[in-house]
């Protein structure tokens, strides 16, 4: 797509598109003096914005179905945590976490989940700065995801996951979503929770699943007064 086509697709003016891509906030490539954009990468970028994983620059379309207001406890349990991943590569991280989700009965097939997560990674890596990755699928499959969930894998050593800052990734959050529950408030809240400066070090230092879960729950509680005051 050209800048003009993308501006029409996003329903914004061309100056906004140019500003975002020049600042590195929108995925694009310059061919000569012209910017070009892949539809799949733009859709993935929008997906991350709607999930609250990246800052919102373009307003998403209105939701067509009621939103469920989930809390961390609604989609996450201590059993969902793998405190020390055996995986040492990007693909093996995905396989290990997908297998854990299947073992817990959260997805019907680990094979499908691996393929869906890898497809998303091939379009745009899910790892961000500060040793974090937020994995999810490009398309929601209600028949495959038993209920909205999150699983967490930790690698103290770290894994090269194509992070934005080129550093190893240590905490891998895998999100199992459904179409009608795309705009779940707990996803953007999760990013805010992890933005608290003490949270990531506390998660890396935790010794057990129970401690990891409790430290995330504590981060959620500390965030609640701030959200209530907005």
Q: How would you portray this structure in words?
A:
With 230 residues, this protein is α/β, with parallel strands linked by helices. It has 2 domains: 3-51, no CATH class; 72-228, Mannitol-specific EII, Chain A, CATH 3.40.930.10. The protein has helices at 3-10, 14-22, 39-51, 72-75, 90-103, 110-123, 185-195, 199-205, 209-228, and strands spanning 29-31, 34-36, 81-82, 132-135, 149-159, 169-176. It is globular.
Apparent shape: globular
Question: Helix and strand string, N-terminal first?
Answer: HHEEHHEHHEEEHHH
Measured as a percent range, the helix fraction is: 40-55%
Radius of gyration: 18 Å
According to DSSP, the number of beta strands is: 6
Strand content: 5-15%
What ranges have pLDDT less than 50 throughout 5 or more consecutive residues?
none
Tally of individual helices:
9
State the end-to-end distance. Answer: 38 Å
Estimate nothing, just give the exact number of structural domains.
Answer: 2
CATH fold naming of the largest domain: Mannitol-specific EII, Chain A
The biggest beta sheet reads:
4 strands, mixed
Describe the strand arrangement of the main beta sheet, using strand numbers.
3-5-6-4
Task: For the structure shown, list the relevant keywords.
Mannitol-specific EII, Chain A, 230 residues, two-stranded antiparallel sheet, globular, single chain, alpha/beta, 9 helices, 13% strand
């Amino acid at each position: 797509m050209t800048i003009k086509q993308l501006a029409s697709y996003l329903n914004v003016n061309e100056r906004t598109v140019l500003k975002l891509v020049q600042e590195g906030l929108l995925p694009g490539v310059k061919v000569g003096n012209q910017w070009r954009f892949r539809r799949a990468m733009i859709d993935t970028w929008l997906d991350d914005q709607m999930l609250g994983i990246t800052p919102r620059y373009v307003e998403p379309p209105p939701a067509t179905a009621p939103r469920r207001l989930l809390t961390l406890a609604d989609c996450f349990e201590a059993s969902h945590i793998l405190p020390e991943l055996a995986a040492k590569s990007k693909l093996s991280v995905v396989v290990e976490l997908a297998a854990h989700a299947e073992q817990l009965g959260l997805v019907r097939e680990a094979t499908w989940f691996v393929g869906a997560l890898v497809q998303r990674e091939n379009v745009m890596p899910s790892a961000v700065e500060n040793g974090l990755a937020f994995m999810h699928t490009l398309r929601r499959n209600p028949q495959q995801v038993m209920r909205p969930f999150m699983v967490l894998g930790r690698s103290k050593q770290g894994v090269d996951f194509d992070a934005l800052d080129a550093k190893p990734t240590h905490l891998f959050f895998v999100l199992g979503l459904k179409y009608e529950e795309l705009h779940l408030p707990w996803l953007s809240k999760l990013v805010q929770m992890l933005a608290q400066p003490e949270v990531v070090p506390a998660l890396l230092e935790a010794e057990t699943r129970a401690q990891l879960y409790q430290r995330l729950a504590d981060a959620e509680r500390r965030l609640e007064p701030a959200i209530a005051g907005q």
